[in-house]
Structure formats: C-alpha cells, structure tokens
Amino acid sequence: MKKHLALLLFLLAPAVLLAQEEDYDYEKYEKEYDEFMERYKSSEEEAYYHVDEDKEWVVAPFVPTDAEDVKSYKNKFFEFTEIENFTPYDENQQWTPFQDSLIKAGHFLWYEPRQFIGGVDRSDILKYEKKDNVVAFAYWQNEFRQGRGIWIAYSMDGGKSWAHYHSGLIQEKPLFVKWYSKYPLIKSNGDLQIEACLMRKASGPGLHGFVEHELVQDGLLVTFELETLAKDSDGDGLTDIMETRLRTDLNNLDTDGDGITDDLDMNPRYNLPRTEKTLIYEAVINDDLRAHRFWDEDCEIIPFSEMPIPHYVTDTTNTILVVTDDPDFLACQPTQERIIFMRTEEFENTKDTFFEEKENVSFSPLFKVDNMEDAYVFGVGGAFWSNDYVVEKQKDGWCIKVTMSIIE
Q1: At residue 229, what are phi and psi to the nearest 5 degrees?
Q2: Nearest CA to 288 among 397, 406, 142?
Q3: What does the pLDDT look like over 249-275, one tens digit per residue?
Q4: In a 10 Å sphere around its CB, with 0-12 CB exposed, 13-18 middle and 19+ buried, how is residue 110 labelled?
Q5: Could you write out the DSSP letters of every residue in 151-170?
Q6: pLDDT tens digits, residue range 216-248?
Q7: Are 124 and 206 spatial neighbours (Cβ–Cβ below 8 Å)?
Q8: What is the rounded distance in angstroms from the CA atom of residue 212 to the CA atom of residue 264?
Q9: Residue 9 and residue 13: Cα distance in Å, rounded?
Q10: Nearest to 352 by CA among 69, 150, 78
C-alpha cells in the first residue's frame, strides 16, 4: 500500500494543496490514512484477490493468443480469402494517407485544422475511392474503447449523402486492415474489398498502455457485401453486424423489453429491478460528483429514493463492456456511456473471442467490511487507471469515498 502513497498524496488528498506550507505534517497524514484504511479492512477482498506472502497484489502473467486460434478466426458477416499477389505487412506503416501527406509536407499533425469528408475526420480515413457516382471509404474510430473499429462510409450520389456501416472489425483483433494496399476498394459489382492480415498480441500493456502485436498470417483479402453491411433484420436502426457487436437480439427491436428500442437503450440487454445497491454502481458509472469525495473529506449522501433521469444513446455515446453476475449492477440505468453487460459464464463461453475483451472497464464485487454493518469496499479499473472506494450505508442514503486513484 505504501508504495503507492506518493502517488496517492498527489492524486487524492486535498491536503496536498497545503504542501507549499513548511509546517505541513506528512507523517500525520500518512498515519491518518493508514488508520482510515484499517477501519475499512475486508477479509472478503483479500480472499477474492490472489495475494502473495509479502501481501503484494499478484498480476497474472501475460499469455499471447495461440497462433493457431488466430488462424482459425471466422466471421459470419464477411469472407476473407488467401491471395498470392499481396502487399506485405509493414509494421512501420502507422499513419493514415492524409496524415502521411501532412508529415511529408512538413506539417505538425496536431496543429492542422480538421477536415471532414462525409462527416469523418480525414485523419481517420484509411482508404478512399470513387467509381462513377459511387464513393466509398474505410475509416476507424474508437467508439468501443477497445481499439479502432473499422467502419465503411458509402455514397451512391457522388458524395452528396452518406450511409455509415460498422464492418464488425476491430483493428488488430485479429484482422489488421491494410490501407496502403493497391487492391481497389470498390469492386465491379459495388461491393467492397480490402487487403488484411492476421495479428496477435505479443505483449501485455506497456508504457502508456501500448500493446505490441505480431504478424500471424499475411496475404488475405476481405470482402464486404453492401447488402450484408446494411441489413437490419428487426428495423431498430442497428444493423445486424452492430447488434452482434452489442450482443443484442437481431430479431427483436427491444431486447430487454423495457420499452426502449435497442438503438436508444443505454443498457439494452438487461431490465432488472433496481435496489439500494444499484445506486452505488450508478454513482460511479455515471460519474456522480458525490462519489468523488476523498477519504478525508465530508461525505455528500446519495439518497435511496433517487432515480436517474433517463438518457438515450446518441451518435456521440461511447459504449463499454462490463462483465458481472451482480443483479444490482445489471439493473443500472447509465447516463454517460452505453453499457453492454455480460454475465461471466456467457463471456467465458463466447466463441467469438475477438469481438469482446474484458480489458476496457472492470468492476470488483462489493466486499463487506469486517467490523462494520452495511459498509463495503470495491474497485473500478481501466487500461490506464484504477479507483478504490469505500461505501457506507447511512440513514437516508449512501456515503461513497475514494481511497486511492492511480493513473499510469
């Protein structure tokens, strides 16, 4: 715990603002923090996590995805075939064509005015092509916090109006789309194709969360049928590819039956009764300022009677995956991000392991504090950050405080 204390002092304690004063007592602060944490000790938490003899948290070693598993990857929405005359994978090819043109002209990418085509920043466009009145381009965006999703923009009137379709691909998971290939994007029948290769993770998150990938198989050509990209079986505004991505029902426009169609629902898979503990999770996932009180600050109660104002998905709403079996959590009403909840068994048994990864946001269970009634500790973490909380039940609501926050 003490190895994080310097970071803790910087990130959490309001008292650090007094650090410029010569008489600030750091030893007293450390003692008060340790005493506070001792009061909220949880044997359940220690038993849940694997802890070594030195009481240090043990991180599971990184294991690369098996190369043969990567080679067996299939996708029901598109085909990819082996080709002989292919453009070899180039690990140094990182910039998109527009970015490359700016760099070659001696411009700084971050200071250039943004330019858009079809509502998409040109810096995100991987491959652009026009054939008669048909204009199409492939681009990426980070709407799922799990890497760069590959999207297709398609126009049949020379670029006056556009349709946008998710391809179902996430770059390097495991297909890497090559935008520098010489293969034409638009086929003679109007469908699309793009060269690709298969990749796997070669290392876990390193500096700033970057992950190294390595080539498994090169020389693949991916074909996207326009009819498949656009298909929306239940007419809810989400294509079948997107519904598969979100794990919603392709043939039911309201998967959880709560009266909100899947395209607007912030929690489209579960409609369970709310409980008092649901409020705890909602306060954290909805970035409630009352859940940002530090351990040594006065608490602001979150009332049991409080109901979140309904929010709906928009074009700018992010989507995150959360794996949990807690019905209190599954009943949440998100307001900041769309949450795709999966139960543990469903997540572990899914065959399409490249569609979802558990790494983007994770929540621990609520661990009961040993010597206190209705008091719990829990943690929330992402790829580059983690927060620890204590929560205690008061007469009219919950008191939630942050005990540690780490940003890598």
Answers
A1: -60, -40
A2: 397
A3: 999 999 999 999 999 999 999 999 999
A4: exposed
A5: EEEEESSTTSS-EEEEEEEE
A6: 999 999 999 999 999 999 999 999 999 998 999
A7: no
A8: 35
A9: 5
A10: 69
